[in-house]
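Tip: read the tokens left to right.
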């Protein structure tokens, strides 16, 4: 499985689409959103926006893994994997680990823009803890993307993943604070995985730790998306065999 993991990581990091959408675009959006109108001294806003855009980039990188799976299914790569001794859980786990590794550049580049360009200042432990928590917290979205990739065609996966990507980002408050939402929409946003995902980093920038509710909601989504990914992989195997 580790040889398979190394192969998939190299393939992803060499993909220009990944570099543009998951690394360059979140940095550009962050700098644009936080510097329009000049510097008003709102350091807290720039720090929170940095977390939101790092989470947004990580979300895109994580779900991009599913698009690659759908393309592999089209060219027959998944059929080759099924004749290896690897179990369905091992294949899904390998792909999920690949997605987890490839979210790191998205997080690190946005954080670098925050510190070097926007002057965001945090203690060393806060930078490290925010990076680690966002990295770990991206796993549910990798599994969601994988589930779509195993279940859908390559073209459909791209459309569905983009819809999930943008919808979850907006609804979870990664672009704009949920405090600006209507009351009923704020109540919905509290239970979205993206809002709780961003809260992992926001809690650290505030000098604290993620709350129990944040961790519990993310674990529930992790179990749901993980089950979806495994079931989708097994379904794709049955479809191919038929």
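Filled-in amino acids:
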């Amino acid at each position: 499985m580790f040889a398979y993991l190394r192969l998939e990581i190299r393939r992803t990091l060499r993909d220009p689409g990944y570099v543009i959408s998951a690394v360059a675009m979140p940095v550009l959006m962050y700098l644009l959103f936080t510097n329009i109108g000049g510097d008003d001294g709102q350091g807290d806003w720039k720090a929170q926006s940095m977390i939101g855009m790092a989470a947004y980039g990580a979300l895109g990188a994580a779900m991009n893994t599913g698009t690659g799976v759908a393309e592999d299914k089209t060219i027959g790569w998944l059929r080759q994997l099924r004749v290896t001794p690897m179990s369905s859980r091992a294949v899904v786990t390998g792909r999920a680990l690949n997605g987890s590794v490839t979210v790191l550049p998205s997080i690190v580049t946005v954080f670098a823009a925050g510190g070097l360009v926007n002057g965001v200042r945090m203690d060393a432990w806060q930078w490290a803890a925010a990076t680690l928590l966002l990295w770990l917290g991206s796993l549910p979205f990798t599994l969601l993307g994988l589930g779509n990739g195993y279940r859908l065609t390559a073209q459909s996966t791209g459309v569905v993943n983009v819809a999930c990507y943008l919808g979850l980002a907006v609804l979870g408050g990664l672009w704009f604070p949920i405090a600006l939402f209507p009351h009923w929409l704020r109540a919905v946003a509290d239970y979205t995985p993206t809002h709780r995902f961003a809260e992992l980093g926001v809690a650290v920038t505030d000098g604290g730790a993620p709350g129990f509710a944040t961790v519990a909601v993310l674990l529930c989504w992790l179990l749901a998306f993980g089950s979806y990914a495994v079931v989708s992989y097994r379904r794709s195997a049955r479809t191919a065999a038929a």
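The chain has a mean pLDDT of 84. Residues 180 and 186 are 9 Å apart (CA to CA).
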